[in-house]
Hints:
By secondary structure, this protein is of the alpha+beta class. The chain has helices spanning 3-14, 81-95, 118-126, 188-197, 207-225; strands at residues 31-42, 45-56, 62-71, 102-106, 130-134, 155-160, 163-169, 178-184. It has a single domain (23-225), classed as archaeoglobus fulgidus dsm 4304 fold (2-Layer Sandwich).
Amino acid sequence: MNHEQEFLKIQNDLKSQISCQDSFKIEDLRTVAGVDLAYWKQENQEFAVCCIVVLDYQTGEVLEKQRFQAEITVPYVSGFLAFRELPLILETVKLLQSEPDLYIFDGNGYLHPRHMGIASHAGLLLHKPSIGVAKTYYKVYDTEYTEPEQEAGSYTDIVIQQEVYGRVLRTHANVKPVFLSVGTGISLDTATKVIQHFVTKESRIPSPTRLADLETHLARKEITEN
């Protein structure tokens, strides 16, 4: 069995466990983790660093930051990105002192040909509710999306073969939207509320993944310069 067949089997086995229902009450949400990775090449080897930033849901205060770096050994294959990133994500989670109530990933979840983007795959392995927020559109089955209105908070749903795969959300007026999808253990409406809650004046991207993204750039610079 080659890599791709093996990955396909794992995704198909896991996808029935995805839940697009809320597994928690939003008023009970205390801590939320943002997860992102940055890559670089050294000679002929590829490396990445994963950064996780944990925030207080109510105040937005940063409670904890952790990172883990390693060589990437799985080649990139479209639709199977999670297999490259999961080993680093799981190692970074092990370093956390706290246990986040919810994870937000820079990437997709249900918005994936088999609903198994990084947010869904990691959420299932971590047994935690999860959300995927992507900055660019991942086109599934050649389906285009409809632009939402220009007001902040406007959205359109991404409907593929009569099923809602995700949501195009305008987090700031007259700014490019983000592409939101359920990972697992959360409804799309609650995921939208969580993302909107974390959007600040600084960026169209919610603060957990925005801060994780900034951390990955700092970490990569520090590692490659040393």
